[in-house]
Amino acid sequence: MGNGVKAEIIAVGTELLLGQISNTNAQWISEQLALHGVNVFHHSVIGDNYERLTSLFSLAQDRSDLVIVTGGLGPTDDDMTREAASEILEKPIYEDAETMRNIEAYYEKNSFTMSPNNRKQARIFEGADILVNDVGMAPGMAIQKNDTLWIFLPGVPREMKAIMQHQGFPYIQQTFPNQSPIFSRMLRFIGIGESQLEHDLKDLIAAQQNPTIAPLASNGEVAIRLTAKAESEAKAKELVQVTEQQIYERVGDYVYGYDDDSIDQSVFELLKEKQFTISAAESLTGGQFVERLVTLKGASSVCNGGVVCYAKSVKENLLEVPKLIISHYGTVSEACAVSMAVNVAEKLDSNIGISFTGVAGPDEVEGHTAGTVFIGIYIDGESPFAKRFYFNGDRDMVRTKAVKKGYELLYHHLKQKNH
Predict the structure, then answer these.
(1) Which residues form the MoaB/Mog domain (predicted)?
(2) CA 194 to chain centre
(3) pTM assigned to the model
(4) Which one has a higher pLDDT value, 37 or 259?
């Protein structure tokens, strides 16, 4: 599809500018276009203002081969994408009978009374191809002016995605047929920082051409997206695999998964593989570790449960952490974390116990500054251990980072048992 195709995405809606909703449409469309070999050169967000819309549409017509517009196709007076585009495209608007029948049928099926302004959603550019909306009312439209293809889509993400997947991308492919097949793969790392990863791969990144190597950092982990273009998808995949192997030889110990994998999922798979069960004793994390695990399908086969032991009395009375440990070392300590991990595994009859205790902030606890976290791990038949960490950020960030670090410790420890 995309040798030299310059694409542009315009999101229409004052609510986007006000921050009332996020512009997730542009992110998703960009990702999908990249996989189709199309380069996106511009992202714009613009409010529901006729003069500014016509100005931006005119600019897009002059500079882009493909313009995708989301939003502003609804029934209300502030939905004016059609009117502004009509001026730039020099195409009149008419009410499409079949689209109107579909809208009326939607209301009838759901026993709703249709207000007269909903007729606006059936208004189409003369000469446009209708992209049917199977999950909503306002259809998408595709129309060309000179050498620019315009695609108009509703702003509701579910409707936009359905239209693009079923009709939009095939339409783009048909319009720009000289395609370079593309293959993209995400390598996911944990336990290594972005700066260290880039340092270890510095020469590969500097020499990158095809495939491209794009490091991406997120909360507590790093990813690398490898993307290759070639005369066939098989060849593009082969190019990615060669570079992937070079990366793996240097930093493969930190790779935990690919593409949409999560560290929770990878730990879950290792627990299933080894037929291990796990339980958690959570103080500052308040159940977040178990919550992430039980969202995975089949979690009951590996997760026996958890204890939220926020108060000192719960640690003493329910988990039976010895009073001597708490009086001598404190609840925020390596000794307490180890005792919590061992005892929760025994009480909930699990092969593995993991514990979290620390200071989410903002105040100090037992002389420890905010961000101090101890994570304890006990695996049946092995000596238990605990590690101290310092995490930056507010309360929520400290707790989130602690949970992610717990999964990281488990992943590397369980993975080593395979070797």
Answers:
(1) 8-175
(2) 18
(3) 0.70
(4) 259
